[in-house]
Fold this protein.
Amino acid sequence: MNRLRLTVSVHNPRLKKPFIISTGARTHQPYLSVRLTDGPHSGRGAATGINYLGATPEGLLAEIEAVRSQIEQGLTRDDLINLLPAGGARSALDAALWDLEAARTGATVARTLGLSPEPIPSAFTIVLDSPESMAEQARSEAWRPLLKVKLGGSPDEEEIRIRAVAMSAPDTRRVIDANAGWSVEQLDRLAPVAAECGYELLEQPLTRHCENESDARASLIQAAKVLPICADESFQTIDDFDRIDGLYQIVNIKLDKCGGLTSALVIRDEARARGLSVFVGSMLAPTVAVAPAHLLSQSADYADLDGPFWFSDEPASLTEDGLFAPIDPAIWGGGETRAND
């Protein structure tokens, strides 16, 4: 196996506007960049890490540096699964290995997976704010095929937010993401409101690990009678399927959670086998980090990959009808090959 040269760095670009969810606001989004090179061929990857798990790009970099020697000796994607735990560090390296393989073989990652990528209806985020501000955001973005409405703010205004966005974008498909910010009482009260207003699903209404509490379990089962419930914070890796069984109808697969495209493909197949729908998500991340998820989304029921569009000068684009266009393999998925090396 060829030896590899590993290059890692952290970048911290400013966002176009503040990104606000129930856990806080941010104006910048740092991410980790990874490159693996074996002479003429290079592969790229990137990740931000899961912030509610305490991951940071600096922490991901340290995690990778701790196993640098093993990585540079050369490894496969299966080796990587045994080397690092699920998370952003493994995801970035997994992406780089896929991209490197594409450079070596001359076959894009899409072709290796048997895909001819098509534009996808990726959600665009309506950030948490006052009902009036969220209504204005929804009016401005109503031309998009799918809106993801962030909730989990002041409890007395949640129903107003739900109705305000629905009234401002009545003809646009909409989903809700409460980011684990609701109580059981709120879920009982607001799920019927969301269903009445035409939202298609409700993502992670209760806290992570709420499934261990009997009242939360009962509330999730009752809410699912009017609106499909998606597990995000409560669903990290393939090991979580049994714990959430019977409580959710949809699982959110993020590469930064499960450790990369290699693991995500296995999770997708298991979700289908269990009769669950698939929602492919991403962190606020650059195009290189989102590109593998775009391929995974080709077979998904929902996708939320708007991360690159929160940064300036990212090589991601939309079609005229607002779909997320396929990502050029020159950005990720085709690898890089230098002549005369």
Notes: The longest helix spans residues 88-105.
